[in-house]
Amino acid sequence: MKRIGSVLIIVIITVVLMFNVAAAEQMDYSAYEIKERFTPVEVYMLHGNNAVAQTWSDRYGDIFMDWHATWFQDGKILREVNYNPLGDQFYVPEPHMDGTCGMIELFCVKDQESNEPKESKNRITLYDWDEKSLSNPRVIAEGNVDVQIATGGCGFAVWNSPSKEIRLYDEAGNLCFSMVNCESNPVRLMYDQLGNIWMMTVIYGEEFEDNTYILRHIREGAIQWEQKTDQITSFYPDEQGGLYCVVLLGSGSYRTVGITHLDGAGREDLRKSLSADKVVLGCSVYTNPETGEIYLTGRAVANSRKVYKVYRMTLDQNWNMTDLDVRELDYYHDTNLRILRNLDNDFYVHSNGLDEDNRGEINPVIIPFNALKKTDNPGIRIQ
Q1: Domain stop point among 120, 149, 182
Q2: How far apart are CA 107 and CA 338, in angstroms?
């Protein structure tokens, strides 16, 4: 009997020690938490630890009642603008290439009886956003108009649905391009630092798989080339007038990532595939204009096996891999980890956490990539 008791004590001590070791290895995320707000989908990085986002603050109530356009610095609120998206005014941050940020207001007059928007009375206004307030208002468009910020900021589109007119503006509100009889509001929009704009619109079919997507390259107010595809792609400027396009290939849970490069004339001159061993891969493509290095970044996750990783692959200009850095981030079992790059070419990971049981206790985090613990490669390879 004493022997059985001794064995039980040893087992208990072993379990306690194992738990303590695991707890000791668990990263302390408190220094990177954004405690004042929940952070929805889009986060833009500026210089250093500055980030702007649309956020909400009501943890348990109606998320549509208390929204903010928020500028964070080191995880603390530097400045913000409050709004109710069900009201007359909607605000969205508009990041600039120099690390500052403007603000776009969509003002919608509503019918007093029905409380429905009078779409013909919309007004889009661009503001400067400094430490004091919004200033220097410039009315960009009025009427039945809507606005969309470019991915990464640095410009925006205004869409007039009755006339099917699209207008593209730079970050200062200068008109860059206009087009009538456009198929749709952009489903993708990207600006680079050289004055190039890429816009993807959609011709809707009877079924989703029947949609046709049109990618246009715009420079100096004119379309340089356009081409059709049956797939919606993510795309990333190479900072030399060309573009990397990213699509998911195949079917099933663990799909391969296809990467193609289009030169300044829209000609395909590179095709690569990125895959891994039984993990879900995400992929963004960034180029360092100073060194010419190319970075592939994204998540590598498998919720069923508790794999929560992010990676940064470095390639030279000939697409030879020079480094693969894989880090671990299990933040409340979040499989939607997002890699962000700031204007200093530093990388961060954004996570909101996904554990439903603890949702009211989870604060979103924005963590420097290099602060995460290194881990093994889940078979990520480029071919």
Answers
A1: 182
A2: 31
164 in the same domain as 288:
no
Last residue of a domain, one of 154, 182, 210: 182
**Left, alpha or beta for 316 (phi > 0: left; psi -120 to 50: alpha)?**
beta
Within-domain flag for 352? yes
- Tell me the DSSP string of 167-224: EEEETTS-EEEEESS-SSS-SEEEE-TTSEEEEEEEE--SSGGG-EEEEEEEETTEEE
Q: Answer whether residue 288 is part of any domain.
A: yes
For the chain, residues with pLDDT lower than 50 are 1-25
pTM for the full predicted model? 0.86
Domain that holds residue 371: 276-383
pLDDT at 112: 56
DSSP assignment of 308-341: EEEEEEEE-TT--EEEEEEEE--STT-S--EEEE
Domain count, the chain: 2
Summarize pLDDT for 329-374 with one digit per residue, the tens. 999 999 999 999 999 999 999 998 886 666 567 888 999 999 999 9
Q: Does an H or E element contain 27, and which?
A: none
